[in-house]
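Good morning,

Both structures are done.
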Amino acid sequence: MKLSDKWFTVLSEDEEGNLITINGREELTEFIESGKFKERVEITWKYEGDSHGMPFDETAELMEKVQEALKKAMEKDKLSILTSVYTGGNQKTWVFYTRTVRVFGERLNEALAAFELLPLEIYTEVDTEWEEYKDMYEMREWKVD
């Protein structure tokens, strides 16, 4: 299975009317059909944002570094795949599908060891059918070019 780095961007709103930027990954059919990535991990960072609920530049830059560290650690041997990133409404959420939550947790700690303590919340769920990803992917038709 070859992991592409093709993404699309969609603009949406949350329940409060805040702008949400959704970045979704393309070309994951082989990973979905493999049946190996049965668990979903969502990592959420709540922040104090600007008047539109978006992160200030300094926070956004740190979030980008965290995302790169997580992506590198999780995808190096395809333990986990970053499938989508939601930003807005004063929070950022990274969604991964993983082979094992236990090892994901170990790698998470290793990947973030170089950073100060971050305000992250982690949620896991068995999602063998990739329901969250498929719901997000349906919004692709509204992608921003």
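Second structure follows.
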Amino acid sequence: MGFLPKVVSFIVPARLKGPTKRLLQQLLHSGLAKVSGGQEEALLWSNAQAKLTPYRMIQGYLHGTFPMPKVDNNQIFIWYDPDPRAIIPVADFKIRNDLLRCLKKEKLQELDKRFEIKVNTNFEQTIINCSKPRGIKTSTWISAEYTRMMLELHQMGIAHSFETYQNGELVGGVVGVALNGYFITLSLFRTVDNASKVAFCYLLTRLKEDGFKLHLTGDSDSWFAQFGAVNITRKDFRQELIPAITAPVTFTSLVPELSI
């Protein structure tokens, strides 16, 4: 028969409760910071322990971090604050030659094969499609809980989708979050070649026309490189973040006209 650990309890005098509580907090925080690798890392870990809500998601975005469920356990969210990270300078965005050729070719397609772009027409199905595994993968980071949070943000007018249709069917799209002059691209999907690329091009054009100041995206060494993505340090990102989230910019839910 094993031995159960004895639970030690003690009563803290009322006059000492405040000081004792603060002392324990300081000791625990110091230990957590050392284990986590620093105070900021400890804060990210602490945030990840709280229940995810739309409020907490917005709070994280405004701090320049973003929550992602762990692939092996989608009930646990990790708050990422990478260094460096990739942005697409919105003001400098131009449609590059290879993408321009793709857009021109697409315009010459027969009507049933031609792409039609819409904004926020079917956000729910767009993010559901983004959450589906791709290739040989059996899971993605967009969990059911994360999808529910994004749907709430969409109902608040904060999360948006640019969608690509072909013959009336949703075949591609991109979802993201707009907070004043700051936009975060979260995910894309396609079931037809170039469908997500075209949707993303329209999104970038919309952001440029609306005057967005900062656009966070995926790794600059990935698919986003063709749109001008560049890596910047965490310090430089934070310097750009404050002016962006305080800029009086409004996301316009209209499909822009491309000069092609």
